[in-house]
Each structure stands twice: as structure tokens, then as C-alpha cells.
Amino acid sequence: MMKELSVFLVGVGGQGVLTMAELFMGAARDLQIPVNYFPTKGMAQRGGSVKAQLKLGRDMVGPTIRPGSADVAIAMELSESLKTLRYLKDGGDLIVYGYRWQPTQVMLGKARYPTLDEVRLAAKQAGAELHYLDPQALPADCADNIYLLAAAAKLSLLGELIDSASLREAITRRWPKSAAINLASFDAGLAAKE
Amino acid sequence: MKRLNLSGNEAVAQAALAAGVKLITGYPGTPSSEVVDSLWGRAPAGVTVEWSVNEKVALDTAGACAWAGQRALCTMKMSGLNVAYDSLISFAYSGCSGGLVVYVCDDPGVESGMPEQDVRGFAHMSDLPVLEPASVAESYWLTGYAFELSEKIGGPVLLRSVTNVSQSHAVIEIAGDSPPPQREAVLIRDIKKYTKGGAEICLAQHRDLLARLDAAGRIMHADSLHQLELGERGKPGIISVGVANAFVPEALSLLREEGIDTAGFSRLSCRATIPAPREEIAAMLEHCSSVVVLEENEPYLERAVIEIAYRLRLADKRIAGKLDGLLSRIGAYDAAICARGIAALLGCSYQPQTLAAFEAEAYCCERPIGVCAGCPHRGVYIALNQAVKKLGYHKDEVMVTGDIGCTILGMSPPFQVLWTEVSMGASVAMAQGYVHAGVKTPVFSTMGDSTFLHAGMPPLLNAVQNQTPITAIIMDNGWTAMTGMQVNANTAAQFQQSALKKRVDLADIVRGLGVEQLWIADPYDLPALTAILVEAARLPGVKVVITRRECAIQAGRRKLRYGRQHIDQELCIKCKRCITTTGCPALFWDGELVGIDESQCNGCGVCSSICPKSAIVREGE
Questions:
Q1: Which residues of chain B does A104 touch, with a Cβ-Cβ cutoff of 8 Å?
Q2: Chain A residue whose CA is closest to B366
Q3: Residue A43: which pLDDT band, with cuts at 50, 70 and 90?
Q4: Which of A44, A127, A108 is nearest to A80 (CA)?
Q5: Nearest by CB to B367, which of A36, A47, A125?
Q6: So what's the architecture of B565-618 in CATH?
Q7: What's the CATH architecture for B376-557?
Q8: At B531, which helix (H) or strand (E)?
Q9: Taking a C-beta distance cutoff of 8 angstroms, is the pair B26, B76 a contact?
Q10: Mean local confidence (pLDDT), B342-361
Q11: Mean pLDDT computed over B508-526
Q12: Count H helices, E strands: chain B?
């Protein structure tokens, strides 16, 4: 029986979260794995919350992930990562790229932004297996969403279902002219240290 | 056959082409827009695809095409059907000679911010069949089925999707390239069918309408459209429709994991609520000890099940759902909600896990919906706030009605200038209502260009006819923006799809409606716009201010920049007024200095007018 996997992705509009989800979907399609991909942009342009839900391995499947059932959650933004905990199953992998996209009120010191320790504590309480990627460690000239895509595949169950070769193929297909730089970001992500 | 990655909406578009559709019309509205969007500029030969002025126009156009014997598709969001319903009910009573499919997307769970309505209620009132796809693949084949059904019964068919189906993407199999539509248009003179002249005609049409709905039920049954899987006699059963069908398998595995045994349960997966699949429901009721009805939003299918149970003298059987308080009419469904409904039949109370994680969300920083960097609407909101002050009022004393679309974002911080949001075009009529209520301070209304063209013209004409003193601001950014940048009649000629590239100027329309006091202002020029708003507010009669600048996102896509702004750090006193007044995402405070993110700034210059020290300067000036 084909393995089923639910993946919840979050971030901020403009970061490339949906691109990441679309690449996972493209690779799954090449591997003949059924996928339902449901992106939600809300009313947000750049700077608003964005989420995407991937349900892999089942032909007839409801588009949304019920609370406590995602096998993997991927967050491109530190504060937004907290929104995945509701959906992650006990022991599920949470891959967080710790970029901080601060709304104006936070910048001005009028609203709080969660600390990394608060995120770690919340993840622990929710039973999440946290894999934290420090944005400072992103190599120069790397696309952060492709870097995170590779790291997430490597650090979670996603990698068991979707191999690197298929993801590399999906990246090359999407950017035939700038494949090299994106594949370099991908390789950097595979080598990323938690 | 081809295998393609399509969204639910794109699947509807492709299926319509495969069905030989002659015309596709629509008005943009999340979550339905991609049917027309995906064919925009690439309609195959012989097929017309258009963004219409509003949903009623879209439906009237498509309806006539179907009266001429062709297949026509009309698309809109649920709020759009509120606008088009006047025509839909008339088309329903008349029927059609070709195929007419009306595709409407509901939004359970409200991802896009309008009333959480269920358009199946409209179908009840007009006795129209409603097909409800559960997935992207079903969106494809039910569209083709809808055209077949429409022509077999001789009347329109509603195809109802929801956000999480229409916006989902999946790889599905579709027909190869379809030949262009083959039919010739026919003119049918049939007064008894195509007019509503008198009781005799209308009563006969009502009779025919009911006969068409009955026929639809017989055809669906004969086609085995609904999936009936009877399990063990005397065990419970699950009746579901639409996207709930897709959640049931996951709900059943979930219950198995929880040790709740659902072996032998019967299932009925309906692909339509109206007409209710009476035979299949009867079979379930006779076979099962109890049933649960799983459907999002309103309990329309559930009511049908209860009614059928009553007729069969099975009214004492348990029928679980919303009407007994078990499940909610509010919000979108997921597998856990379906599992709760199913478990209840066994007397188990399955409670989806409530995690400590819910509390974690309290730490999240809020991301209020705001306007983009360089958005021309920003200038209007700030100028309105400044004008109110210059007129000697506090902002809590001046009514500014809002409307649908991006223009409503002025309700949010830091502007907080708009008070109301009702429906397309309502802002201008509501402003008149506030005046008649006896409000003594000036009353303003705000709406975008597409909203004005959609439903803003009649209320403006109303103000002119009655000379009601209001100041109506039309924020003209050249696009139907919030729904994803569609073309409207006011969009620049180069982007029009018609051969003659015709653009209609809003100013001509406003003058044509009899408005004598009209200003055209640049929303990037704050002092000038503020002065105009002050002047207009002080004058009697109907005043219109058109603020004109292209949407910053669309202009940005063509690399249009108006200049480069930078901050003279020697002049900057770090008051941060530029950030707090404009809320522009291109401005930032790094803890020591105010800065401008060059990648976002389009040089609109609104922040320069805010700075008390003139520290934000345009490069080269």
C-alpha cells in the first residue's frame, strides 16, 4: 500500500511558500503519487499569512488537514510556525526556517514577536519534533525556499516518499534557464545543519 | 487523453471546452475566478470568453446564447449569484434550448470575507438541479455531465463548488484537444417560453419547471450518479454530499484507529442535493438502523432525508446531522468533523484532540490585512483623514462608507477611515441614507473602478436625481485587483481582449450620469487631493472625485517605478511618522534608523508628504 502523508506549509506572502509546495507536487506527480494541493492566500498580498496543504498518497481525499494529523509541517517564518502546531500529529516533524518577517507594529515595538525559546517550548508541548534552521546559516546566493525544501525533504518522512532526484527534476523543469543556481540552493539545503 | 495538473476551477474550464461550449462569461470573485482567468487571452477558435460588467450581465449573456441553441457557461462567486438571481429564476422558469450551466463557488469557512451563504438555497427557490463536485477530478466530469443534463431536461443546471475544491490542484485525466463548437445559432420565437406575459404563460412555465426537476431526478437515478454502497442490514449508514464525500474515507480510517468499529456501515455519496436522490435515500433508510447526513453549511440534504423518512413511516429512525444539534452549520468540514458525526451513530462521542498547541497561536504576531507598498489607495485614505481634520471634525464624526474589493482595506490600521461594507455598489446608496437620516457632517463614499461599473452607476444616478449631498470617491486603479487582476471596461486599452481594444473612461460615465461637480485627482499627490476633498465636502449637491493611478502590483509587473526615494538620515528625527501614518511595507525601522526597502518601493512619494522634516527625498531632486 502506498504511504499516505499530510504536509502543512506556512509562511508569509512573498517568501515562496506556494512555490515550494508546487515543487513537491510536481515531483509527486512524476512518481505517480496522487496529490491534492490546496493553497490558501486569503486576501493577502505580500506580507500576509499564507498556508498550503498537501495530501499525498490517497486518490479520493478531502483537501484540508484535520487538527493533529499532519505528518510534516514546514514553516518559512518563525512566528507563523506556531500556526502549524494545531495540525501536526504527536511526534510529527516540524521544520522551521527561522526568518523573522516583522509586521510594522512589531518593528515599532508596539506588538510582541515570539522568541525562539517560546517556539521551542510550544513545539515541545505539542509533541512536535522540531528541526530548526538558522537563516544566518543560509549560504550566500541561495534561494531560501529551495534550501528549505531540500532540508525538509531530508529531515522528514517526505524524503522517504519523494526522493531528491525527483525534486531536482521538478526544479529544473520550473526554471530551465536558472536551474543551476536553484539546484545549488537545493544541495545547500541537503547539507543544512539543524 | 491528457494528464494535467489543474485546479478545480481550471478543470471546469477545460471540461466546458471539451463539451463544446460556445461562450464562457463571468465576473471575478474568489474562489471562482480561475475558470475565466485560465482561458483569458487563449480561448480556442470559435469560443468567446469574457469578463462581464457584473454577474447579472454575465448570466443574461450566457442565457441568451443557450436560448440560441448553444452551450454556455456562466461563472461567479456566491455573492455574485445574489446579483444574478433575478435573471436566474427567470431562466429557470423559461428553460433553455441549448445547454446552460451556472458555476457558483461557495466559501464555507470564509477564506475570502463575505457572508457564509449556501447557494443551494437559491436552487431550492428556483427548482434547479445542483451538482456538487467533491474533488478536482469530479469538477471536470460533472461539468460535462451538467451540460448533458441541461440539454436533456431543457433547463439551466447549477454547478456548485466550494473554496477547498475549486482552489485545490490535482493531476487529472482530461480529453485531448476538443474541436471548435460545431452548432449554428438558431433563433427561436416562442413567446410562451421566452416571455413572462401573464398568468397563463407563467403558470405553465411553473408546471414545466417542476417537470424538468423531476426529469433531472430520474436521469440522475438512471445514470447511477449517486454512489450507493449498502453494507450490512441493520447497521448505521452515512449519507454525504459534495466535499464531505471526499472526507469520509479518512474519517473511517480515523475511527478504526480509535477502535471504533464501522464495519458493515452503508454509504450514500450524493453528487447533488437538489433534486434529492429519493430512491437512494429511501434504500438507505430502509436498510440502515440510523443515518448521519454530512454536508457543509445548511442542512438541505438532511431536510430531504427527514422528509423522505416521514413519507416512508420511518420517522422514528435516528437521522443525525445539524438539525439535532450534533454538527454545526458554521465553517468548513474536515475528516474529524465527519468522524464525529459517524461515531455518534454508535453512541460514541468522538472528540477531535484538543491540543496545547491551540494556545501556542496566541504567541503568533498578528498580520493585519493592509495595502501593498505603493498602493494608490493609501493616498486616498490618508487624504481623507487629513481632509476630515481640515474640515474641523474628528474622524469619529464623519461617515465614510466602504465597498467591496481592495478599497475596503481603508477600514484597517493605520487608516481606520471606513465604516461599512455591505455589497457591490452599496457605498454610494448608503451615503445617501446617512444624509437622509439627518447626519449633519459631510458624508463620503469610496469604491473602486470595477465596483463602480458593476453596481455603482444606479446609486450615483439616484443621488443626482434627488440631489442628495454626498461626496463619492471612485478609486480608479485600472484593474479588478483584489480578485487577481482582471480586466474591466475601464482597464487601459492595450490590455483589452476585444479586437478594437475599447476602453471606457469613468469620467465620461460620471458626467453622463449628470454629475456636474467632478474632480480627477492623483492619489500620490496628497496635498492636492486633500484640498479637493475639503472643497468638495463644503459644496452642496453631488460631488464625485476620481482618484487615478494604476494598481502598484500591476504597474510593478511591468517594472514601472515613479522614482527612487531615500531618507536623508541627517534630517530624519526618527519620529517614525512615515511608518505610522502610511503603514507602507517598504518602510522599516531597524531599531536605530528608518529605512526604505528598495525592492518594494515604487517611488509613489506619499511618505515624502508625511515627513515633517522633508527628510524623505526623491533621488536626483
A1: 414, 579-580, 583, 585
A2: A103
A3: low
A4: A44
A5: A47
A6: 2-Layer Sandwich (3.30)
A7: 3-Layer(aba) Sandwich (3.40)
A8: helix B526-538
A9: yes
A10: 78
A11: 98
A12: 23, 23
Do B227-344 and B565-618 fold alike per CATH?
Answer: no
Residues A51 and A76: beta-carbon distance below 8 Å: no
Residue B592 contacts A where some CB pair is shorter than 8 Å: no
Chain A hits for B359, CB-CB cut-off 8 Å, are 122
Q: Is B313 on the interface with A (CB under 8 A)?
A: no
Question: What topology is assigned to B2-222 in CATH?
Answer: Rossmann fold (3.40.50)
Q: What number is the average pLDDT over the span B16-41?
A: 97
B364/A79 Cβ within 8 A: yes
Domain ranges across chain B: 2-222, 227-344, 376-557, 565-618
What is the ipTM for the molecules in this complex? 0.95
Query: Hey, where are the domains in chain A?
Result: 5-190
Contact criterion met (CB < 8 Å) for A80 and B368: no
What is the secondary structure of B221-253 as a DSSP string?
A: HHTT-SEEE--STTS-EEEEETHHHHHHHHHHH
Distance CA A114, CA A96 (A): 14
Does the structure show a pLDDT above 80 at B67?
Answer: yes
Type of residue at B567: I
Q: Which residues of B touch A1 (CB under 8 A)?
A: none
Contact A60 B366 (CB under 8 A): no
* Residues B577-586, mean pLDDT to the nearest whole number: 94
Chain A: residue nearest B242 by CA? A62
Partners of A61 on chain B (C-beta within 8 Å) are: 135, 246, 249-250
Residue A165: pLDDT above 90? yes
What superfamily does domain A5-190 belong to in CATH?
A: Pyruvate-ferredoxin oxidoreductase, PFOR, domain III (3.40.920.10)
Question: Which chain A residue has the Cα nearest residue B254?
Answer: A69
* CATH number for region B227-344: 3.40.50.920
Tally of residues, chain B: 621
> How many other CB atoms are found less than 10 A from the CB of residue B237?
27
**pLDDT value at position B161?**
98
Q: What is the pLDDT of residues B101-130, one digit of tens each?
A: 999 999 999 988 889 999 999 999 999 999
Q: Do A104 and B5 touch (CB under 8 A)?
A: no
Chain A residues whose CB is inside 8 A of the B331 CB are none
